[in-house]
Amino acid sequence: MSTSSSLLVVGSVGLDTVETRAGKRADVLGGAASYFSVAASFLAPVRLTAVVGTDFPDAHTKLLETHAVDLAGLERVAGRTFRWSGVYAADFSTRTTLDTQLNVFQDFRPKLPAAWTDSEYVFLANIDPVLQLGVLEQTKKPRFVACDTMNFWIEGKRPDLVRLLERVDMLLLNDEEARQLSGQANLPAAARAIRAMGPKAVVIKRGDAGALLFHEAGVFSAPAFPIENVVDPTGAGDSFAGGFMGWMAREGDISPATIRTAMILGSVLASFSVEDFSLDRFRRLDLGQIRERFAAFSELVHFEKIKI
Ligand code: AMP
Known about the structure:
Elements: E1 7-10, E2 14-20, E3 23-30, H1 32-41, E4 46-53, H2 58-66, E5 69-77, E6 82-88, E7 95-101, E8 121-124, H3 129-136, E9 144-148, H4 151-156, H5 158-165, E10 170-174, H6 175-182, H7 187-195, E11 201-205, E12 211-215, E13 218-222, H8 236-251, H9 256-273, H10 280-283, H11 287-301
Parallel strand pairs: 1-4, 1-8, 2-6, 4-5, 8-9, 9-10, 10-11
Antiparallel strand pairs: 2-3, 6-7, 11-12, 12-13
The structure holds adenosine monophosphate.
C-alpha cells in the first residue's frame, strides 16, 4: 500500500436499534463515524474523534481497533452512549426514525490530540454542526474538508450548519436533505444553491439510485451496485463517505480524476455495508473483495464512445 495522507473524522459513535424486513437488531454498533472509519480503514488509516459512555461494550472498541482506527481521540465518559433507532419500509424506500438520544454527545467538547491538528483530510461526519465546527477549528491547514449532515440538524441547527458550510470543500447529503437545505425540488438546482453557500463540491446520495457529484468539472454520476439481498441500509451513506475519503487520503490528491474514482470506491463500500446489519459485513471484508467489486463496477458502467 502507498503511504497515505492523514485522515481525521468526527461524528457519532453509538448503539442502534434497527428493524428491516430481514429482522431486528437491538443496541448494535452504529453511528456515522463508526461506519465511516471502518469503511475508510480498508484504504487508509483513520483518526477517530468521538465520545461514548461507560455502557459502550469493549467488543465494539476492539472492532474499531482491529481495523487500524486510531482511537486516541475517542473519549469515554460517565453516562449513556448515543442511541438511535429506526425502522425501514419493506421496499427500503423510506426510513422512520423512532428515537434519537444524544446522551454523552450533549456535553461533548471535542479536543483533538495535539499530533492530530495537522490532519490533511478531514471528514465531519453527521453530528451537531457545533461539534463539527469545534473540530474543524482545531485543525491547522487541512487540504480537503468534507462534511455530512441530516434533517435533524438542518431543522434544529440551521444557523450553525450555514456557518460550517462556508468553511468546507465538499458536502455529502441525501436527496431529501438537499431539497430541504436548499428549498429547491430539482437536484441540479439544489446543488447549485448549496454550492453558493460555500462547498465547491456537493455529493447528493440517492440510495439505490446512486450518487451525483456536482463540482467545478461538471457533473459525475456513480450508480449504486445492484445488490439482490439488501439486509440493512443503515450507514450506507457513511460507508460511501468512508470509501470516498479513504481513497482521497490514500492518493493524497484532490484532482477531478481522483474525486471520480473516490465516488466509485464510495459506492463499492456502501454496497458491502447494506449486505448485513450494523458493521457486520465489514468484519468479513478484505481488499481482494473490494478490488473484485471495483472491477465489476467498471463492467457495469462501461460503454464505447462510438459515433451515433
Ligand atoms: P445513514 O444511514 O448513513 O444516514 O447513517 C445512519 C447512522 O447515523 C446510524 O448508525 C445512527 O446511529 C446515526 N445517526 C442517526 N441520527 C443521527 C443524528 N441526529 N446525529 C448523528 N448521528 C445520527
